[in-house]
Amino acid sequence: MSRLTPLHAHHMLLGATMTPYASHMLPLTFQKQTIIQQIKQTRTHAAIFDVSHMTQITFRDKKVPKCITAPKVEDGNAKLTVLTNDNGGIIDDAIVSVCGKMLI
Length: 104
Known about the structure:
It contains 2 helices and 6 strands. The protein folds into 2 domains: about 5-45, no CATH class; about 55-104, Aminomethyltransferase beta-barrel domains (Alpha-Beta Plaits, 2-Layer Sandwich), CATH 3.30.70. It is of the alpha+beta class. The strands form 2 sheets. The chain has a 3-stranded mixed sheet with strand order 1-3-2. A 3-stranded antiparallel sheet has the order 4-5-6, with no helix packed on it. The longest helix is centred in the middle third of the chain and has 10 residues, at about 35-45. The mean pLDDT is about 80.
C-alpha cells in the first residue's frame, strides 16, 4: 500500500493523476493542463515539487560521509550538491543545509 504525502489532498484538488513511486502516491500529471503547459508554467513562473517522500539524514559534528560532496554552508542556509560513487560519478543530487550548527 502506498503512503500519502502531506500535499496529497492538494494534488487531488488540482486534478492530479497519481502514481506510486518510492512507496508513496505522487502526482504524475495534472488534468487541467497538458504536459507542455505544465513545462511552460514551470519555466516561466514556478512549480512545487513534493519532496516529503524523500529521506532526510542528519549528520552531527560535521562528520559527513565521503560520498557527499559537502559544500561550505552557513547556518540557516542550504546548497545543492551530489552523492557520488567510489569513482566520483554522480549517483543523485542532494541538498545540504545547516541548522543550528548541525549539518543536515
